[in-house]
Write a structure and sequence with these properties.
2 domains; about 35% helix; Endonuclease, Chain A
Amino acid sequence: MKIIKKLAPVFLAISLLLVSACAQLPVNNNISPSYAYNDTGNSSLGKKAAVLLSEGSDKSIMFLLDEGTAAYLARMALLEQAEKSIDVQYYIWRADLIGKLFYGEMIRAADRGVRVRVLLDDISIKAENEAMLYAMDNHKNIEVRLYNPFASRGFRAADYLTDAFRINRRMHNKSFTVDGQYTIIGGRNIGDEYFSADKESNFKDLEVLSVGQIVNDVGKQFDAYWNSKIVYPVKLFEHNQSTPEDLEKLKKELIEFEQNQKGRKYDLDIKDSAMYKFLKNRLQNKSYKKLYRGDVLVLYDDPEKGLGKSEKEIVFLKSLLKPHLDQVKKSFEVISPYFVPGDIGAKYLASFVKRGIKVQVITNSLSSTDGIMAQSGYARQRINLLKGGIELYELKAEVKTRASRSLRRSHKAKSGLHAKTYIFDREEIFIGSFNFDPRSANINAEVGVLYQVPEMAQFIGSEVFDNALEEFTYRLELVTVEETDDEGIESRVEKIYWIENINGKEIRYDSDPKTSAWRRFNEALYSILPIESQL
């Protein structure tokens, strides 16, 4: 009897696995396609966009969104003014403070007759979020679809065992488009930590709010994914038993949730923001200091990358970026939170230096990163990168911008890098979801925009690489030192030092600063595992 009791959990796990292994995706996925609205010039947002574009409608106009509160305000202002359509596409959408506030506003827009299309990767859809999405899908003006979904909705581990090749491929794209007139592209997912609303840890990120031709091109990208055969409407899942009554219940819950936030810390932070009135009421203002005009290229992976198709069969984003890399003559500046160049990437960047090109990289430090596995892949290449002449900088976990220091909810939270930005000769700049790592290059689907706007490239390059490095990052230096072992034998060893400047005083660390021995051990452990291709 005791043996049976001990084996019961094993039998249960095997039973669940067998049941889940029988699960399959809906076979009838012949859904009707739909497409982005473009004839929306008479909408309120269309008229405001026309004011901005009056000097040249063939160009795109860009606003930089570098603060979390500004990024929240931009989206909320657009949702409140939506009249025709809302198209949102994300890798992660959490059912937290930020996620629920956006859900509530999207439902209100749908109640006004706005068509809402929600396209999410399935990797982060937990039970609470799934129930909310299923309920929203009951609205006549809302449709929810999932990219490359798990067949087993209740026991996902089975899919990793039975269908790992497919499940490993995710949609990392992030786009937010309203009325076919305004779009936001960049690095942020939807969750508290991306909008300066988390008490423990928040990301430094960068997005661009745009009008003009770019919006149509982002719409084409969205439609390519929305209508692809790797995307499934949630209404097709047998597991989805949601009803219109669930939608009405959700509406009430979200209204109550929003009312409970009024007067609380994040609500006060938002209303104190310098962006509040501008983004809410004056989206047509031409005098905003971060406004740029120019030509852009929307670049993205073919959605069937998620089916495992190769570069010979479909278009990869990395191939679209390569011609711009090949044309670099003076400088290549990289901002990537998960920077995993591998042997090939390290040699590639070193070849730039040999041609007289200055290469600078900003990535997370071990203290600031939320992904130790990815950090281990980078750490493995640090010496090779430094020997190749690449300048390396790592973000300090404790630093904050002036705006972030004033926040009530998260002013004590640590900082982590999440922006994915590449600057070519300070003439062109790419901003999007694409990390400098094997996963973005070869496995996940990605999107971004190449801005052929020198003023914008120069501004961001100057603000980050010329003015902020000393305050916000550690500079890495490779030094050859002589060491003596226990037997008295001397040897020359290459060591990395992390250099921090505080009030003009240089402080040198011989191991990852502000980290525990346990965290360093985990990074070292991961670095010896053969997982680099998956990072």
